[in-house]
Structures are given as structure tokens and as C-alpha cells.
Amino acid sequence: MYRCEHFAIHELVPPGVFAARGEKGWELLDERLLTALDRLRTRFGPMTVNNYYWGHEREWSGLRTPDSPFYSPFSQHTFGRAADCLFSKWSAEEVRQEILANPADSDFVLIGSVELGTSWLHFDVRNCDRVKQYHP
Ligand SMILES: [Zn+2]
Fold it and tell me: Are the CB atoms for 15 and 22 separated by under 8 Å?
């Protein structure tokens, strides 16, 4: 089983899932997503997905369950295949352009899709002709 090197499970699942499943939460997330997150963290430095564990507001940026105000039945977040990321040293747009300019780079090769025009980086590991781009 793959566990992230750079993220704790509470950074990737919402509070209710963390309370109910704890470390078993890793089983709810696609290992390609987890691998891609570690590669982005290694390349771009500190980054945030969920931060509720430390008293901040983000709790739906990884896995989403039906009680989320952002829930959508076919969202990649619903299937544990998506993350919304903020970077400390890079803007989302800078990271997005790096990915789109270098889709075959080993750091990005698992990324299937990115959202355009957002102040965060949404990426996911969906099955598609990559790198798929779309507006949310
Ligand atoms: Zn997203």
C-alpha cells in the first residue's frame, strides 16, 4: 500500500472520514493521486491540500463525501482521484503551466486533467486523453 511521504492522511480526507477511518483512509485514495502529490511536493516545495487539522478552513480539497457542500456525484474528488493544491513558493498558474508544458515529465506523467483559471491547482488522475484541460 502506498502512503504519502509528504502528507498525513488528514490532509487528504475530510474530518468525518479521518474520524471514522483514521489511517484506513489511505485505502480510499487512488495510489496514482498519492504518488503524483509526493512528486509535486518534491518538485515545488511546501503545499497545502486540507489544513483543518491545524485549525484552518480547508477540509474538502481531497476526498469528498456526500455531506460536502461541494459534493458532485461524478467529481474526481468523489472517487479519491483529485486534489486542490496551494503552493507556498509558486502560484497555481505557474505550476499548471509547468505541467501543461511538460506532460511527459516523470513528475507529471500520472496527471490526467487540470482545471484552468482557478487560484488553486486542481489536478486529477482520471482515465482520459491527457492532459485534459477544462474550466470548472
Ligand atoms: Zn478540485
Answer: no
pLDDT reported for residue 136: 86
Asked whether residue 4 is assigned to any structural domain, the reply reads no
Q: Is residue 3 part of a domain?
A: no
User: Residue 133: what residue type?
Assistant: Q
Q: Please tell me the distance from the alpha carbon of residue 16 to that of residue 62, in angstroms, as a whole number.
A: 13
Residue 2, in any domain of the structure:
no
From ligand 1's centre to the CA of 102, what distance in Å? 21
Q: How far is the CA of 61 from the centre of ligand 1 (A)?
A: 7
> Which structural domain range is residue 118 located in?
9-134
Q: Report how far ligand 1's centroid is from the alpha carbon of 57 (Å).
A: 16
CATH number at residue 40: 3.30.1380
Which pLDDT tens digit goes with each residue over 52-104? 999 999 999 999 999 999 999 999 999 999 999 999 999 999 999 999 999 99
Q: How many domains does the chain contain in total?
A: 1
pTM score, whole prediction: 0.97
pLDDT at 66: 98
Ligand 1 centroid to 79 CA: how many Å?
Answer: 12
> What residues have their beta carbon closer than 5 A to ion ligand 1?
82, 84, 122
